[in-house]
Amino acid sequence: MRSFSDVSRALAADARGASIIELAIAVPFLLVMTLGMVDAAMGYAAKLQIQQAAARTIEMATASGINSPAFTTQNLQADAVAASGQNSSNVKIDIWMECDGVLQPVTAVSCASGQQIAHFVAVTINGTYAPIMSGPMQIFHLPTSFPIQGRASVRMQ
Fold it and tell me: How many domains does the structure of the chain reveal?
């Protein structure tokens, strides 16, 4: 009959099944890393979508031109809302004029004779991204959603 120490030495020397245990230890780590990379890619894609919506709104502003009836804050905001899928409170349209690089009051219609006039339009769209791993993130007291922003601007003549 074999003693306990002989049996325990034999089990300690036996390497069968070691790879299964190593795999069981490594798979959760690899799974979390893979899901994290997928989550980061999806967050970046959401940011790109908002950025492209801001750029599309600027394209619509330049295509219509300053003197067009479509060149209003309300029309540009409606276009940005439609392109981004965000609500109107997350979309900000700024239209301003400068004379020789000096910001003019909103009521100004044109610059004095000989001054260089420049019209500007800026679109800012804010959104949030909620990662697919937001549940496990709560364990570590990490945020469950992240702010994303798209911004575009253009100088119009």
Answer: 1
